[in-house]
Amino acid sequence: MTAKRSIQIVVGILLCIICHPLAAQQYPVKVQVQTLQPVSAQLSNLYNGSQARMIVTLLNTDLQQPTMNVRLRLNIKGTTVALRNRDYGSYPLLQLDAGLPVQLSLNDLAPYFDLNNMEISGIPGSQIQQSGKLPDGFYTFCVDVVEASSGRLVSNEKQSCSPPAWIATSDPPLLNLPRKGEAVAFREPLNIVFNWTPRHLGSPNAAFLTEYEFTMVELWDTTILPEAGFGTMPPLYQTTTNATTLLYGPAEPPLLPGKRYSWRIRAIAKQGVDEFEIFTNHGFSEIFYFSLQEDCQPPQQVAATIANGEATITWAPQPKMFEYLVEYREQDNDKATWFNVKSNDPRAVIRDAIPGHKYEYRVGGSCSLGSKTLGELHAFEMPGDAVDSGSCGLLSDIKLANDTALKTLQPDDQIMAGDFPVRFMTLKNSGDSYSGTGYITIPFLGYNRVKVKFDNIQVNTDRQLMKGMLMTTFDSTKLQGTNIDTVIQVFADLASVINDLAHLTLDADYLAVKEMAEQIKQLAEEELPEELKTRITKAADNLVQAKEEYNEAKKELADAKTPEEKAAAEKKVKDAEKKFDDAKEEVKAVTAEKAELLKGVTDVMLAAIKAVKEDAQKSENGAADAYSQQQKLMKAEVYDKQGLDSAVTVQDIEDLGGLQEILKEDELSPSARAFAQLAKDYNEKQQALLALRLIFSLSDYYKDANTLSTELKKDLALEGKILIRSIMEMHTARSSKEDMIKYAATYLKEKIANLFK
């Protein structure tokens, strides 16, 4: 044997050794896993019901092994938990014939979802064992195929996973009407409106058809809690509806006056005849109850008159009622807070309704202590005319003829402080005086509600402030508001301190003066351009210096022993008073200049929004076409190339969900990387189109100067305060209007684009 022949043999042997493991990497079984969106958190929903929610298709591509007996291994990978089939579990064998695809049935999949056959990591296994639900998060469902005889993996574990799916559990509905513990007026015929608010519409679960099961029981035992009594009584009436409102009328079982009833809603998610567990507490809402009041009809002939920025509500007297109540809130907003005005006469005035807004209201009252009856809903609309600021927030020197103190005030009551309505949040009664907190509604500040505190104020029987003062509160680290159930969040600005400053004198406590000065400087730092900020900061410092000089001069005056010393001290007192008044006037002047500056800023912003909208209109068709083309590419990749139903709509592409890249690049196969790039392009086209549509919505919302001047500074997404201050700086630097418009337009485009990153 020649040396050349020996080398050839050795090379041949080495090639066989090298190629053998490479050949072993060829996987004969192809796996396709598809989850139908949305995916329920309840694992049993994936393999129970009339239709499979997880579709697994297997294909044996090895023609040299025409029949293969296999079992599966299910892997569920989530953000906080992972589930994997045990290798020693009891699983049925599946027979795969070469070239023939096999789609697994519900019975085929069931053993693999049995939690007794699962290894659970990430969270305690008992948590899933008890509920049978996955925690909220992104999940992929992977199916590995294992040859039964050898235990050899015959599928590619990197190419046998479903697209990522978002799984979320939703809260059950919130009950609205009748309110908890409310007394409902009995009338013939009986018509009671029940209303609730769904809380799953912002999640993928909104794709399910949701039915609402309404259940009402009569509470015979009034000595136990209604929530406890609900479960002990048989349903008086039970029905299902797809609406979020139910009218209980004469066709339903009659209700008896003087009785108490309890009701509850259960939300049920359905697809065809199948029900899905997507709600916490099995979809059951909180339990509400109401009393059907005996012979206490609400007032009739209710009417609303709008004049001078106020809504006057009138009605016919109801002799059995000792106190009337008007409740009102913004219309077409189920989350809006109900406010109320009490009255002893058949009329009430709503003074804090916002111009241009629609309101719904109802009139009722109390025939006995501890209960109230409310009538039907009515509506009124406030005209959108601008409100005259009058004295710019200074309380009028009103002489009150009525000096009889009111001793029955409660939290949520409303009084008048000069021309401004004040609503109480917390209240402490000390005889005829009250201390606590509340908020005051200021019309010329866009009807913002500013938080106030008060000590030992007195209110007359006409609900007018007759003694004491309301002071605004300020905390630079917090919004000027509290819980939405009791107060509306507001944003303090410089104009909100004008009233306090006008009433501030040199005889006030030093700490009160210093606190006011600090408040002015902090607000100036947030709102004013550098030039105005410097002026108002100096004025604020002068307030404190004047107070210090005044205190020193008053001390010198008290200690003066000679006419000369007394005259010198009196001069220092007058100089301090003048310095203090000059500082107050400077603060007012800067605030007025800011108001004028804001007019110019508003004009710039309106022009910038118009320019952004015009640019968006030019790009809309191209962006829509690009997005449509990308949808077709996604459809072809996800469905057509996989041999699935070609009649699927492009909306079904989006229903798949999980188009984000969640794996590292080195973990992806070439085909997966290509799909990831396709998904990335799809997301970019979608985001570009959504950004354009958001621009159109933005231009519709900020369509007038009034909305822009009151709402933009509150816009956290666009960081409106920063934009306003930047335009102010450019305005004071004498920048051209064109440059300011260009800057504002670029700023808005960048902020909107960043919302989708």
Report the portion of residues in β strands. 25-35%
The figure for the number of domains is: 5
Q: Would you tell me the overall average pLDDT? A: 77
How far apart the termini lie comes to 70 Å
Please report the first level of CATH classification, the CATH class of the largest domain: Mainly Beta
Helix fraction by DSSP (H/I, runs of at least 4): 25-40%
CATH architecture of the largest domain: Sandwich
Overall geometry: globular
Task: Work out the helix count.
Answer: 13
Q: According to CATH, what is the topology of the largest domain? A: Immunoglobulin-like
Largest sheet: 11 strands, mixed
Low-confidence stretches: 17-24, 386-397, 474-492, 646-664
Summing up helix and strand content along with how strands pair, one would put the structural category as alpha+beta
Question: What is the alpha-carbon Rg in Å?
Answer: 36 Å
Number of strands: 32
Short characterization:
By secondary structure, this protein is an alpha+beta fold.
Structure description:
The chain has 757 residues and is an alpha+beta fold. It has five domains: 28-167, Immunoglobulin-like, CATH 2.60.40; 174-293, Immunoglobulin-like (Sandwich), CATH 2.60.40; 396-491, no CATH class; 494-584, no CATH class; 600-641 and 674-754, no CATH class. It is built from 13 helices and 32 strands. The strands form six sheets. Strands 11, 13, 14, 16, 17, 18, 21, 22, 24, 25 and 26 form an eleven-stranded mixed beta sheet that branches. Strands 3, 4, 5, 7, 8 and 9 form a six-stranded antiparallel beta sheet that branches. Strands 27, 28, 29, 30, 31 and 32 form a six-stranded antiparallel beta sheet that branches. The chain is globular. It starts with a helix and ends with a helix.
